[in-house]
């Protein structure tokens, strides 16, 4: 896909420089905003604004916004159990590998749950999603004080989880988590909808899942829709009554 890089209207010199740098990184083209016309008529445009990086893809805007994470972190602060605690109990100080960063809601919640004693490593294959989220997480403390400090112990990597897992040793991570794009999207999932045109869709392979089961010190979790045959791939299904998604769980009995 050809990527055009530009700025918002009335850019500063540093915004123009940033758009040029991004155009080189994405092997795309820098076009000054005043020459570009309507963003919705272009297939894919990266826009450098004063406060963020935004992508317009086929007329839809994708920007970093941790809305779901804010809600979940607020509930945790109010003493409610997050889904990861319902499945695993207390995970303070765990080392977590989030194989599918997306818009980082799960990574931020996991960062809150493991606390500063733990660590989250998050992988994203899409270059554009990675860039937008890396930029957003870098500005998290000033833009979203409710989530202040949570990006500090998240390490981001722009890699394919299948390759990354190959280089791991047993015990590098306590939890390995996968939330790949669903074959059948859940229509009422607005947070994920603009992500769909940019995301990678390769399903989680049995090879990578089996490798993860051997590597994770404590658990592997896979998220998918309710009809996904978790049992057929050796995972125990966990569904909250009110939820449209399910989780497949593998607990490492050696621990
Ligand atoms: C459903 S989204 C994850 C949402 C995320 N859990 C959140 O809370 O925002 C799936 C993400 O995984 C990425 N992805 C898919 N296959 C991947 C792979 N093999 N390696 C790394 N990332 C991958 C997609 O590009 C997409 O951004």
TrEMBL record:
Keywords: Methyltransferase, Transferase. Pfam families: SAM_MT (PF04445). GO terms for molecular function: rRNA (guanine-N2-)-methyltransferase activity. Its EC number is 2.1.1.-. The keyword Phosphoprotein does not apply. PANTHER family: RIBOSOMAL RNA SMALL SUBUNIT METHYLTRANSFERASE J (PTHR36112). This is Class I SAM-dependent methyltransferase. It comes from Proteinivorax hydrogeniformans. The lineage of its organism: Bacteria, Bacillati, Bacillota, Clostridia, Eubacteriales.
């Amino acid at each position: 896909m050809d990527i055009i890089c530009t700025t918002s209207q009335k850019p500063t010199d540093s915004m123009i420089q940033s758009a040029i740098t991004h155009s080189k990184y994405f092997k795309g083209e820098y076009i000054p905003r005043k020459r570009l016309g309507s963003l919705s008529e272009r297939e894919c445009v990266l826009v450098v604004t004063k406060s963020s990086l935004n992508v317009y893809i086929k007329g839809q805007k994708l920007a970093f916004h941790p809305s779901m994470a804010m809600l979940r972190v607020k509930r945790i602060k109010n003493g409610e159990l997050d889904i990861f605690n319902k499945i695993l109990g207390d995970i303070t100080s765990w080392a977590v590998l989030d194989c599918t960063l997306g818009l980082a809601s799960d990574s931020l919640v996991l960062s809150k749950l493991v606390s500063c004693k733990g660590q989250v490593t998050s992988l994203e294959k899409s270059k554009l999603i990675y860039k937008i989220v890396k930029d957003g997480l870098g500005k998290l403390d000033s833009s979203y004080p409710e989530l202040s400090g949570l990006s500090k112990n998240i390490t981001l990597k722009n890699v394919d989880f299948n390759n990354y897992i190959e280089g791991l040793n047993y015990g590098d991570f306590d939890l390995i988590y996968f939330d790949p794009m669903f074959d059948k999207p859940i229509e009422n999932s607005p947070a994920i909808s603009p992500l769909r045109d940019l995301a990678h869709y390769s399903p989680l392979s049995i090879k990578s899942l089996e490798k993860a089961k051997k590597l994770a010190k404590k658990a592997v979790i896979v998220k998918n829709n309710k009809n996904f045959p978790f049992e057929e791939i050796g995972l125990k299904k966990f569904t909250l009554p009110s939820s449209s998604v399910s989780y497949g769980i593998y607990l490492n009995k050696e621990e």
